[in-house]
Amino acid sequence: MRHKLILIASNLLTALVVAALTSLFWIAAYGGEDEVESADDAVVLANWRRKCMQMLEVYLRRFNGISAEKFMERWAWVLFCVQENRSWTSELLKMAEERFEQEARSDKPFLKHHRPSFRYEQQGAGG
């Protein structure tokens, strides 16, 4: 029983910390409504993406040393499915897709359509 109470308290504390961080994030990302409405779209996007990267840094520090299993159990659903986090994690995915598109136009062979072992076969063959 005591273990369950400690686990519930731990989960509640984690949820409160996440909610507080998210609230601070939104306030910092958007500022006042007048500021957002009067700003250039490119400036707003750049500010938004900077804040998304800052949130990623906060969570990466928090995940230092966490196993993949614990991440999936405790955090993946919070980051990628809870609406208030989905907005900034979706923006990170857009940024990654844009970067992939840039890189895909280059001559990097590992971005071409090859079987999964192609890169390692090339390294083994001196490539």
Global Rg: 20 Å
How do the SSEs run, as a string of H and E?
HHHHHH
- Give the helix proportion (percent range): over 70%
Query: Main sheet?
Result: none
- Which range does the strand content fall in? under 5%
Mean pLDDT: 78
Tally of extended strands? 0
What is the SS-derived class? mainly alpha
Termini separation comes to 59 Å
Write a brief caption for the model.
The protein is mainly α. It has six helices and no strands.
List the helices and strands and how they pair.
Elements: H1 2-30, H2 33-38, H3 41-62, H4 68-81, H5 83-104, H6 118-124
Helix pairs in contact: 1-3, 3-5, 4-5
Give an overview of the whole structure.
This protein has 127 residues and is mainly alpha-helical. It has one domain. 79% of the residues lie in helices and 0% in strands. The protein is built from 6 helices and no strands. It has helices at residues 2-30, 33-38, 41-62, 68-81, 83-104, 118-124. α1 (2-30) runs antiparallel to α3 (41-62), α3 (41-62) packs across α5 and α4 (68-81) crosses α5 (83-104). The N and C termini lie far apart (59 Å). The relative contact order is 0.06. The mean pLDDT is 78.
